[in-house]
Specification:
By secondary structure, the chain is an all-alpha fold. The chain has three helices and no strands. The chain has a domain at about 25-60. The two termini are about 30 Å apart.
Length: about 70
Amino acid sequence: MVKKEEPGGAGGGRVLLVLEVLFVLVALGGLALWSVRGALVVAGVLGVVACERALADRRGGRRAAGAAGGEGA
């Protein structure tokens, strides 16, 4: 079985993910200071996007998009 290595070693992807999550939380917190309703809507959309990304990673990315009727179908 061939394993696909990510660039930057095993911990590189995790650090990038933590930085991405922190950035989104700070941006969402700033939006919440201005508009709580807007922040709740954006948080819901970002939650759906995060779930879709995790599901695509689990299924194999592009192959799952083609099978589910994604782009190019």
